């Protein structure tokens, strides 16, 4: 078992603490929080050991789980790497691309593993259809949330849309050639609602919408490709796969047949895979343990996290 410690005991930090504590791949050593009052409160309530300093925690573990505000990710990661520790770092990876690239260099230099917390990669609905998504040419995503003051210190692109940016970049095996975007600050000092259009060198186009001032929650992605339409609902953990194939010469009474202007007939059929129930956060943490133990590449690399941040910044710079 790997000895693990958590930096940051806020809302998400407490979830990480609970899951690391119940995992059979980690031994939760304890945590550090810059707010001593909060740290002692969490220690008293849950029994996790509160360390008085970052250094004391880092020294006691093999893996440092960084769940602090984004602005401190870089410094926390540098401290952990300098002491030879593997790092799991929440999204967005760092505040700037330059910081992210430096962290990647340091990890490689020290021959350590790192993973970024893009948790939607582990969403069971996405996992169920991931292998069906092949060379999509149009992608549409909507990620809408009700207003919550937590997270409003950064634009909605870094708060919400970055989830979908990472998903899209993991699927479209091509470089982004053009970005156009618009964003509006309604309640916060930074944009609360944003729309972006990503154009890839291979011709794929992705249209992304994110809002944190919606009256309803929505986390959906739709993928359109040759002979298939695939929908993923990250919120309800449901998916839909609609495919086309050449129509049989003698269709059955209930077969759905389409005929285009040229007279070509296609049969529409549903191919919805089974969705396995899981805890996505636990899975991302445990696959990171596997990558460390087996000396393999983590599912979401620091390169992935850096590229998601790079595109997110391109979107923000287009407002």
Automatic annotation (TrEMBL):
Descriptive protein name: Oxidoreductase
| Location of the Gfo/Idh/MocA-like oxidoreductase N-terminal domain | 3-118
Q: Which InterPro entries match?
A: Gfo/Idh/MocA-like_OxRdtase_N (IPR000683), Gfo/Idh/MocA_Oxidoreductases (IPR051450), GFO_IDH_MocA-like_dom (IPR055170), NAD(P)-bd_dom_sf (IPR036291)
Q: What domain of life?
A: Bacteria
Pfam families per UniProt: GFO_IDH_MocA (PF01408), GFO_IDH_MocA_C3 (PF22725)
Give GO MF terms, alphabetically: nucleotide binding
| Domain spans labelled GFO/IDH/MocA-like oxidoreductase | 156-216
């Amino acid at each position: 078992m790997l000895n693990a410690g958590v930096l940051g005991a806020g809302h998400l930090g407490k979830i990480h603490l609970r899951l690391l504590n119940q995992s059979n791949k980690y031994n939760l050593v304890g945590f550090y929080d810059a707010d001593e009052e909060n740290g002692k409160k969490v220690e008293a309530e849950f029994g996790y050991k509160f360390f008085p300093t970052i250094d004391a925690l880092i020294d006691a573990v093999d893996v440092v789980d960084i769940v602090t505000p984004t602005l401190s990710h870089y410094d926390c990661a540098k401290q952990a790497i300098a002491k030879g520790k593997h790092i799991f770092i929440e999204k967005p990876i760092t505040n700037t691309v330059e910081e992210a690239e430096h962290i990647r260099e340091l990890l490689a230099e020290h021959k350590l593993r790192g993973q970024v917390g893009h948790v939607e990669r582990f969403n069971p609905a996405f996992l169920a259809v991931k292998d069906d998504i092949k060379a999509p040419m149009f992608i549409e995503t909507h990620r809408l949330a009700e207003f919550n003051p937590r997270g409003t210190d950064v634009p909605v692109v870094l708060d919400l849309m970055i989830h979908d940016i990472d998903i899209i970049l993991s699927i479209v095996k091509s470089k982004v050639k053009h970005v156009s975007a618009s964003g509006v600050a309604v309640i916060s000092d930074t944009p609360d609602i944003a729309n972006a259009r990503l154009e890839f060198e291979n011709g794929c186009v992705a249209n992304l919408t994110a809002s944190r001032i919606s009256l309803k929650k929505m986390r959906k992605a739709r993928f359109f490709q040759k002979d298939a339409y695939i929908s993923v609902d990250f919120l309800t953990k449901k998916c839909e796969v609609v495919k086309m194939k050449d129509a049989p010469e003698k269709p059955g009474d209930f077969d759905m047949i389409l005929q285009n202007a040229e007279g070509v007939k296609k049969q529409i059929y549903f191919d919805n895979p089974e969705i396995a129930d899981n805890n996505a956060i636990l899975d991302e943490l445990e696959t990171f343990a596997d990558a460390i133990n087996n000396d393999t590449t983590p599912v979401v690399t620091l390169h992935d996290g850096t590229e998601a941040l790079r595109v997110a910044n391109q979107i923000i710079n287009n407002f």
